[in-house]
Q: What sequence folds into this?
């Protein structure tokens, strides 16, 4: 396989004899160690693959296209994924959408060249670990529905994520149920479409922490923040914000939530 560039749909819907597939025991991806892989679209989509070994780095660190790669997969990743960097990935749309998996544990993955992250983690509800702490997503232009309907009981830490180039962020955190989200480096300076970005978002802890981050980052000349947060905060806090946003500077100075306005 030294000349192989395309491994798209390699295991797509594969369930030989109705059985599960363990590529780690087979050390299957060592066969592609020296291959110039570019396309891994739908490589495991809706298949019977339930274990993937650390040797998958042969694909993870080379391919540009990971669209639907793990979509609809019932996966148990119990091997080292620390070397899965996805540093050449450009399309990760629906990459993990609707996957049933105990963890997204990619502590060193950068996703620095990703341009399309539409629905990347959409509808994942089985997580006990969500580690993307080195991911920057600095080149991602489309983050539509990126985390929509994700359920996670702990903190999503993305300390290096800037989303610097993001233009479309509609539904990005729609219907998310999570403890809290840490995005200290986020800028969102290029966002044009933030429609329903936080609609029906449920943050179990510190719901205003993320809102403050986004308020400071969004370009208010293009975006009206108020509709984004209406369905995040309790009714009495919504009313307070209406006063703060519509009452002029004199009201902002006495607003009990004025730190959101700074």
A:
């Amino acid at each position: 396989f030294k000349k192989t560039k395309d491994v798209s749909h390699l295991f797509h819907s594969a369930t030989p004899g109705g059985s599960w597939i363990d590529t780690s025991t087979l050390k299957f991806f060592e066969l592609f160690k020296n291959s110039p892989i570019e396309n891994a679209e739908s490589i495991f989509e809706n298949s019977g693959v339930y274990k993937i070994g650390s040797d998958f780095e042969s694909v993870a660190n080379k391919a540009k296209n990971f669209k639907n790669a793990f979509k609809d997969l019932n996966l148990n990743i119990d091997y080292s994924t620390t070397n899965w960097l996805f540093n050449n990935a450009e399309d990760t749309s629906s990459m993990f959408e609707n996957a049933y998996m105990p963890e997204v544990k990619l502590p060193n993955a950068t996703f620095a060249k990703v341009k399309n992250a539409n629905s990347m983690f959409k509808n994942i509800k089985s997580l006990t670990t969500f580690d993307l702490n080195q991911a920057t997503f600095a080149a991602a232009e489309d983050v539509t529905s990126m985390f929509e309907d994700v359920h996670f009981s702990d903190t999503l830490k993305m300390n290096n994520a800037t989303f610097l180039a993001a233009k479309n962020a509609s539904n990005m955190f729609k219907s998310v149920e999570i403890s809290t989200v840490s995005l200290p480096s986020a800028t969102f300076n290029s966002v044009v479409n933030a429609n329903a970005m936080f609609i029906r978002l449920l943050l179990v802890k510190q719901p205003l922490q993320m809102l403050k981050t986004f308020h400071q980052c969004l370009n208010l000349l293009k975006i009206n923040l108020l509709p984004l947060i209406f369905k995040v905060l309790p009714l009495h806090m919504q009313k307070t914000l209406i006063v703060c946003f519509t009452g002029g500077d004199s009201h902002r100075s006495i607003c009990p939530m004025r730190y959101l306005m700074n």
